[in-house]
Design goal:
Layout: E1 3-4, H1 9-28, H2 34-40, H3 44-52, H4 57-67, H5 69-75, H6 80-101, E2 112-113
Antiparallel strand pairs: 1-2
Helix pairs in contact: 1-6, 3-4, 4-6
């Protein structure tokens, strides 16, 4: 079992954004399914926990958009790749904004626990 612990608020937000980008990239290359992405991050439970942690509203909104991917897939499949790209680009933009505000991205503390 691998446990990941992030103590710094900015580390948590950056970690989430990096995961969102990776999930969207994996979806666009058909390496994972929408269900896989939902299990990994895009759930109402994730949103409720992240709201309690006072995570940036833009990041919460990206996760909310991820919750809608299944709807796009079933109702307007021709728009699915467009929304995947949009989520990815918004996450990249937010990550760049955070980088510009911070002297370093992820803190130097180890975040993988035994």
């Amino acid at each position: 079992m691998l446990k990941i612990s992030l103590e710094e608020y900015n580390d948590v937000q950056q970690f989430l954004l990096i995961n969102i980008i990776g999930l969207m990239e994996s979806l666009s290359h058909e390496c994972i399914t929408i269900t896989d992405a939902e299990v990994a991050l895009f759930t109402p439970y994730s949103i409720s926990i992240l709201k309690k942690l006072d995570i940036d509203r833009d990041i919460i909104e990206l996760i909310s958009m991820g919750l809608e991917l299944e709807d796009y897939e079933s109702l307007i499949p021709h728009k699915l790749n467009e929304i995947i790209d949009e989520i990815k680009e918004l996450a990249i933009k937010k990550l760049k904004q955070m980088k510009n505000k911070e002297s370093q991205m992820i803190s130097r503390e180890k975040w993988i626990d035994n």
